[in-house]
Amino acid sequence: MNEAALLIAATLASGTPLAIAGLGLLLNEKAGVLNLGAEGMMLVAAIAGFAAALYTGSDTLAFAAGALAGMAMAALFALLVIGLNTNQYATGLALSLFGAGFSAFVGVDLVGKKLADRAPFEVPLLADIPFFGPALFRQHPMVYLAIAAVAALAWFLYRSRAGLVLRAVGESPESAHALGYPVRTIRFAAVVAGGALCGVAGAFLSVVYAPLWVEGLVAGRGWIALALTTFATWRPARVLLGAYLFGGVTMLQFALQGAGVEVSSQLLSMLPYIATIVVLALISRNPLWIRINMPASLGKPFHPGS
């Protein structure tokens, strides 16, 4: 029973950065912008957050640094695709490659360094409940903030006027522009806000989940977060569920190894990515279902006056 509780706890921790990054990318895509640079943004944010935590000892400053790094990368992307009308797919891939190289370059002196041990986090009283305490209530506060962010984003998108306008921009930017809404400004703001969330996710990996710095620390999670938006059919709650699903698959490899299952460690390490491919393959079998849920203008540039 205790092992099951630890597996659940590890799943929550592993799925949290996927959920936060997935929410950021969902916000981008609801505005009609497809950003393939999540991996690069998370890597730059991870090194920024780790450096801030290493030299200040503050998790708060580390997450702030990660968010700012993610926003800066996202603003660069937005300037190119929204301001200069570059191709969204090519620019996103370039951003991802740039982030990988830049984070490796600036973090070369920090490779292998670890953060000081921190006091364990517990929710008072609830953490002492048998099974549920160790499974659910001994997590970093960011785990609970990620769950709150899902509810907040769902409310914003489906209950607030600003969220409805953002969704209108993602569905039909021409109509939104005709009604007087600044389509490009709204898209820029959505991309930068999404970048901040990707930045927080990257900082979580290097500050809480690891907590250390090695080159390529994000290890493909940016791509999995990108796949999550399609898996979730662009719904915030489903992003969270999908993140925990992939987090559980990631932790399963360690559980199997601990149980003495004689399976190649390389094969077990492939499990999260195999699961991603299988899920996307299953979803793609019903293109009509994707087309109904996907923002109509996703990946399409908007040129006012054209």
UniProtKB/TrEMBL annotation:
GO CC annotation: plasma membrane
The keyword Cytoplasm belongs to this UniProt entry's keyword annotation: no
Chain coiled-coil ranges: none
Bilayer topology annotation: Multi-pass membrane protein
Keyword Membrane: yes
Alphabetical keyword list: Cell membrane, Membrane, Transmembrane, Transmembrane helix
Transmembrane segments: 6-26, 33-55, 61-82, 89-108, 141-158, 188-210, 216-234, 241-261, 267-284
GO MF assignments: transmembrane transporter activity
InterPro entries reported for this sequence: ABC_transp_permease (IPR001851)
Compartment(s): Cell membrane
Top-level taxonomic group: Bacteria
PANTHER family per UniProt: ABC TRANSPORTER PERMEASE PROTEIN, SUGAR ABC TRANSPORTER INTEGRAL MEMBRANE PROTEIN-RELATED
Protein name: Putative transmembrane ABC transporter protein
UniProt source species: Methylibium petroleiphilum (strain ATCC BAA-1232 / LMG 22953 / PM1)
